[in-house]
Specification:
about 5% strand; about 900 residues; five-stranded parallel beta sheet; single chain; globular
């Protein structure tokens, strides 16, 4: 009687008779402390009706080594799960049981899984490095027990379909359908979700034609073959790849299919008729690779599907076939590191793109290791290359000559740098330029002209912008649709919800090369700059008309910010500084909402250095610099610029501009000791705004007036003014100035021990500032949230929030808000005294690394009375 140990390796009898317990046995190896992972692995094995073999499943009166050796000898598949620990080494052994189990697994099929961790014990790191160097077994990384269970179940199903016949015999190479699939010489990294999704499409009854699309170098071919490896048991007549790269004409596609399937010519029958006759009663999956240059053969594929009911087709192409019944699947870039991960190796390695770079760099230079010194540079490489697998692989190959930071610094001109791919790759995939040129060569002349002109857009574009800037003189929508189909342009929703089109930076660089070669670059860039100058002016008018649209309008500038920057740069280089100054002033609310003060000042300082600057333009630039300086609490710069700006604006009759300058100047007079004069200046500006019906100016003046009243010691008057201002702005739907008013109120409420009202004001402010993505305002709110926490007796949370505020300020180059600083300094001293220096610094350092949503969550938890939970939120 056969035992399970022989299943998959012995020869089955002609008519096998099995007992019900004869199931494949899967040996699970790991340190025993990985209880959740072992439970997940066991459940995955049992879901496939296989038998898990685990050390703890039954006590036996034998030594541990003898037990696991016996278990291994009776197992068919080895699963290794590795995390941080190397495991116990017996006194009479030189390696741990964990390593010994791997060594004893022999030639059994192996599935290895490694938890993403940056603090593995050195012997375990050495073991994993040896496994990688042996290049006989690859492993996958996982973050959680749930992920492990899901991936293991899928991999076991794939392994069974490739290695084991349902009768128990191992098929010969000729008998095994999956053996026709190419075997890659490099590891496949990531894309677990994509593999699941593609398999789900192929296994759905209605999806008989699935097309994987994406730009060159995105990884369509690798994904296709990884996805179908687990499906051979579903196609009794095989999975057959058809490689079309060398096929020159669409009419040759059927011949390539016939050759791949082994269908010989039959006299009197056409190729289509022969294939129909062959496929009619067979269940076959055809993988048609690299279809885009023979796209006119798409109707032939449709005819085969219409006549062969058991046929399924998976296509890789830079363009959809556009036939009935087609299910498209867009292959996107690899996942990039989260911007907040810093140099945390565990978090960095959670990114598919980083893992691909590491693996290919190790292949190029075996001594390469991702560490704290090079992690930031590797992250920068992956981000600059936008997760494009081919580009990352070509960059990683450079590690033999350059350090990671040197590679990152050379990516401004990536097309000339990312060359010399492996010689066994097709010519079109050995350089990034050749890969893009292959797609470009498939375009019509009209499409090439529009494609090159679209290269001037940075960060994407709208249809309206492209229509003006590209001067298409053709059906632009049709051309864009074709470029989308060919994966040279991508479509999607912008931050503001509008439809936008984008190019990968590598493709955009190629487009600009073509634009320069055509001699069209200067007029196209001129139209681009003019369009975005007008766009900024219209944006300001929309902002003035409806303050409740602040989040939407700020998001629209974020969408177009790179284009706006390019337009300002063009105007400065073209000696048109007045246009740059006007754009800077129109965007003043955006600079405040997003805390882009440094950039605003830099632009306007360049304007001031321009020759022949008109008086209005000079005053405008000085006003923008002064307002940005207020945001940075740089009152020395305020004093240098705003008086001249106000005088210049009055001279040219710009009352609104002069009133805007008067508001921070009034605050400055108050700080200098002239409280009455400062209040008068602000009230005069407020009257100007009211008379001119300038709602943003009214809000701006009101909030500063409230602070000036408080500085005079008129705390209740200041609170009343701010409460009135906040209510007024809330009724208009205004957010930014309202949040500043709420923060002023919160400090005043803390000073009056009205903690519940302070907490409510800070909570509303944090919610508003988070929606506006305003880091400088969030930092101020975190400071006052710390004050609320301290007054409630939670000093450690106060220290953590002070750290989070400081870290947020550093991220945008801001200083503590001048009017908040006395209270903030007192809070810092009080929290340090309450905790002791060491405990304060520890909590403060913990807060320094918090950013964005995590920092806001900690602040809101604190003011909700969950101060003790602050650290828990920070750790999440």
């Amino acid at each position: 009687m056969r035992t399970a140990v022989s299943l998959g390796r012995g020869v089955a009898p002609t008519t096998p008779i099995r007992t019900p317990d004869q199931r494949l046995r899967v040996f699970i190896s790991s340190t025993l402390d990985l209880l959740p992972e072992r439970r997940a692995a066991r459940a995955a094995v049992e879901r496939l009706h296989l038998a898990p073999v685990m050390f703890e499943l039954g006590a036996r009166p034998y030594p541990p080594r003898a037990l696991y050796r016996a278990y291994l000898e009776q197992s068919d598949v080895f699963v290794g799960i590795y995390a941080r620990r190397y495991g116990w080494t017996a006194p009479d052994q030189t390696v741990s049981g964990l390593e010994d189990e791997y060594a004893l697994s022999g030639d059994r099929p192996k599935l290895l899984y490694v938890e993403r961790a940056g603090d593995r014990e050195p012997p375990l790191d050495a073991l994993l490095e040896r496994i990688r160097q042996e290049d006989q077994t690859s492993y996958k990384e996982f973050d959680s027990a749930d992920e492990l269970g899901r991936v293991l179940e899928d991999d076991l199903a794939t392994l069974l379909s490739e290695h084991f016949d349902i009768s128990g015999a191992t098929p010969s190479r000729e008998e095994e359908p999956a053996s026709r699939l190419p075997v890659s010489s490099t590891s496949f990294v990531g894309r677990e979700d994509a593999i699941h999704e593609v398999r789900a499409l192929l296994c759905a009854g209605r999806a008989r034609l699935v097309t994987l699309t994406g730009p060159g170098g995105i990884g369509k071919t690798r994904l296709a073959f990884e996805a179908v490896r687990g499906l051979s048991c579903r196609y009794r007549d095989g999975i057959t790849p058809v490689f079309l790269e060398a096929v020159a004409y669409p009419e040759e596609v059927l011949g390539a299919m016939a050759e791949a399937l082994g269908v010989a010519d039959t006299p009197g029958l056409s190729r289509l008729e022969m294939l129909v006759a062959y496929l009619r009663d067979r269940r076959v999956l055809l993988v048609l690779d690299n279809f885009e240059h023979v796209i006119d053969a798409a109707p032939l594929v449709a005819k085969l599907l219409a006549t062969a009911r058991g046929l399924r087709v998976l296509v890789t192409s830079r363009e959809l076939l556009n036939v009935r019944g087609e299910h498209g699947y867009e292959v996107g870039p690899l996942k990039l590191p989260d911007p907040s991960c810093g140099c945390d190796l565990g978090a960095v390695l959670g990114s598919e793109s980083v893992r691909l770079f590491r693996d290919r760099a190790c292949a190029a230079l075996p001594g390469f290791a991702l560490d704290e010194q090079n992690a930031a540079a590797v992250v920068e490489i992956c981000r600059r290359l936008e997760g494009l697998p081919l580009a990352i692989e070509l960059a990683a190959a450079r590690i033999r000559m350059l350090r990671a930071c040197e590679i990152a610094s050379r990516l401004d001109r990536r097309l000339g740098f990312l060359v010399h791919g492996p010689r066994d790759l097709p010519e079109r995939q050995r350089t990034l330029r050749a890969t893009i040129a292959w797609s470009h060569g498939l375009l019509s002349q009209e499409e090439r002209r529009i494609f090159s002109r679209l290269g001037v857009f940075r960060g994407g574009f709208t249809l309206d912008a492209a229509d003006v800037v590209c001067e298409p003189n053709c059906d632009l929508l049709q051309v864009l649709s074709s470029l989308l189909d060919k994966s040279l342009v991508r479509g999607g929703d912008g931050r503001a919800g509008s439809v936008r089109f984008t190019m990968l930076e590598s493709i955009r660089e190629f487009a600009l090369e073509q634009l320069g070669a055509a001699g069209d670059e200067e007029p196209v860039r001129r139209r681009h700059a003019a369009w975005f100058r007008e766009w900024v002016e219209q944006w300001w008018l929309a902002f003035e008309r409806d303050l409740s649209r602040e989040p939407e309008l700020a998001a629209s500038v974020s969408d177009e910010l790179d284009n706006v920057r390019a337009a300002v740069r063009w105007h400065l280089d073209a000696h048109q500084p007045g246009a740059a100054a006007a754009m800077g002033l129109a965007l003043w609310p955006f600079w405040w909402i997003r805390s882009h003060f440094t950039e605003a000042r830099s632009w306007m300082e360049e304007v001031l250095r321009s020759e022949g600057l008109a008086p209005r333009d000079r005053a405008t630039a000085q006003l923008v610099i002064g307002l940005a300086a207020v945001g940075q609490n740089d009152y020395a710069a305020v004093a240098r610029t705003l008086p001249a700006a106000r005088a210049g604006l009055l001279e040219v009759g710009d009352e609104i501009g002069a009133a805007i300058a008067s508001v921070p100047l009034g605050l400055g007079r108050c700080l200098a000791g002239d409280a009455a004069g400062g209040e008068t200046a602000i009230r005069e500006a407020l009257e100007t705004f009211e008379r001119s019906r300038h709602p943003f100016g009214v809000c701006f003046a009101l909030i500063v007036l409230g602070r000036v009243l408080m500085l005079q010691g008129r705390l209740e008057d200041g609170i009343a003014a701010d409460e009135s201002a906040a209510a007024r702005m809330r009724s208009k739907g205004e957010l930014m100035i309202r949040s500043l008013s709420l923060l002023s109120l919160a400090w005043a409420y803390v000073g009056k021990a009205r903690l519940e009202r302070a907490a409510a004001a800070v909570d509303e402010a944090l919610a508003v500032l988070a929606s506006l993505q305003n880091p400088e305002g969030i930092a101020r709110a975190l400071d006052v949230a710390g004050a609320v926490a301290f007054e409630r007796g939670v000093a450690r949370t106060a220290a953590l929030l002070l750290g989070a505020a400081e870290g947020t300020r550093r991220s945008v180059g801001a200083r503590p808000w001048l009017l908040d600083d006395p209270a903030r300094s007192r809070l810092t001293a009080d929290a340090r005294a309450a905790l002791g220096a060491a405990a304060f610094e520890a909590a403060h350092a913990e807060g320094l690394v918090l950013r964005g949503a995590r920092a806001v969550a900690v602040g809101r938890a604190a003011i909700a009375g969950a101060g003790a939970a602050g650290s828990q939120v920070a750790a999440g």
